[in-house]
Design brief:
Largest sheet: 5 strands, antiparallel
Strand order of the largest sheet: 3-4-5-6-7
Oligomer: single chain
Mean pLDDT: 80
Order of helices and strands: HHEEEEEEEHH
Low-confidence stretches: none
Distance between the termini: 19 Å
Helix content: 25-40%
Strand content: 15-25%
Number of helices: 4
Radius of gyration: 17 Å
Shape: globular
Structural class: alpha+beta
């Protein structure tokens, strides 16, 4: 399909956008960070604490999962959410693929999202974000609905 010609499977890019992994391996990596198997406690805390510029948390650089709760650390988006407590996340996309690792540090829970939804101008690109918020509700025992997905799909027919 012409509109997907930019998607390359294992195109040789390293680091930014070219790391290949699985949900199981990402969970092992996430747990190894929080169990201090990869870095010391001090290093881990410096990575996942928000950066302050001129006395204010650097939250304008990258919006987080929830509006108004975020900041930015060393490569990680950081939220201090009133209900879910400390959330540390990093997500990204590469032509044709989107992934996200959301760690609920104080709750010992995580959401790992891997999908192949293209990033085009289509409104359906909201699906990974909306799905993450829905999974978050389920993870914490809250009521989750599908109405937002139904509305999005119907409006894009």
């Amino acid at each position: 399909m012409e509109e997907h010609k930019y998607v390359y499977f294992l195109d040789g890019v390293k680091g930014d956008g070219g790391i290949k992994s699985t949900v199981d391996d990402l969970l092992k990596w996430e747990r190894a960070i929080y169990n201090n198997e990869l870095v010391s406690e001090q290093t881990k805390e410096s990575i996942i604490d928000p950066v302050f510029i001129k006395g204010e948390a650097a939250n304008g650089y990258c919006p987080c999962l929830h509006e108004d709760f975020g900041g930015y650390g060393l490569g990680w988006k950081i939220e201090n959410h009133p209900q879910y407590k400390k959330i540390i996340l990093h997500e990204g996309y590469w032509a044709g693929y989107y992934s996200g690792l959301i760690s609920y540090k104080d709750r010992n829970k995580a959401i790992i999202m891997l999908n192949n939804l293209d990033f085009t101008d289509n409104e359906l690109n909201k699906i990974p974000y909306l799905l993450t918020l829905t999974l978050e509700k389920i993870l914490f025992g809250e009521k989750a609905g599908v109405q937002v997905f139904e509305q999005l799909i119907i409006s894009n027919r």
